[in-house]
Amino acid sequence: MKWIGALLFIGTTTWIGFEWSNKLNNRPKHIRQLKNALQILEAEILYSQLPLQEAFTTIAKQIPQPTKSFFHTLGLSMGKQNPDLYSLWEEQVDHLMHLSCLSRNEQEILKQFGRTLGQHDFDQQQKHIQLTVSHLDRELEDARDNQTRYSKMAKSLGILCGIFIVLLLI
Amino acid sequence: MLTDASILFQIAGIGIIVALIHTVLKQMGKEEIAQFATLVGFIIVLVIVINGLSDLFQQIKSVFLFQG
């Protein structure tokens, strides 16, 4: 009985460690997806001159999860009811935070961007998209740095902490 | 009175694991957390040893002073 408990405990902490390192590994990927999505959005606004709702559905077709569902539900809910875009955007950003591994910085950047969306003419809008992309670039660098540094450490620390606590309790 | 050596193995295991944690943290450039982890490990081992010592003193007291 004691040994089963010990094994379960070590398994749990190992799992937590792997989950942590997974999160670190996925963050750069998700930031890159967001950057791609913004670049597509820029192209749709400047060249196809689509309205935002259609631009969002087009983006949702080209981008993998979880950013896909973000733009998909955004496009859908813009079609259904139409309060102001910003409150919808904010709500969906909060939802995206639960699905993806993005941190609070990205949340803040996205919210800032949502405030400018649909308020300006093409030139201004393009500048805002460029600004957001450069912010995301900075975060991407940061996330990559963290990934190379801590993702291995997270795995081994999970296992080691499990064994440590089991040794204490036995 | 070495009927039960498991406490020795426990302390040895804690030492090994703490050393590993220290190495991993140090490699990743978290020196201060590594030091802290070692300190915590040391304190835990100290508590275990002091428990054993207090048992020993109780035994000695019960032998020489005829009380438990």
TrEMBL record, chain A:
Pfam family, one: Spore_III_AB
Superkingdom: Bacteria
Listed name of the protein: Stage III sporulation protein AB
Organism encoding this protein: Virgibacillus alimentarius
UniProtKB/TrEMBL annotation, chain B:
Pfam families per the UniProt record, alphabetical: SpoIIIAC
Membrane-traversing stretches: 6-24, 36-54
Keywords of the record: Membrane, Transmembrane, Transmembrane helix
Lineage: Bacteria, Bacillati, Bacillota, Bacilli, Bacillales
Taxonomic source organism: Virgibacillus alimentarius
Protein name: Stage III sporulation protein AC
Keyword Metal-binding: no
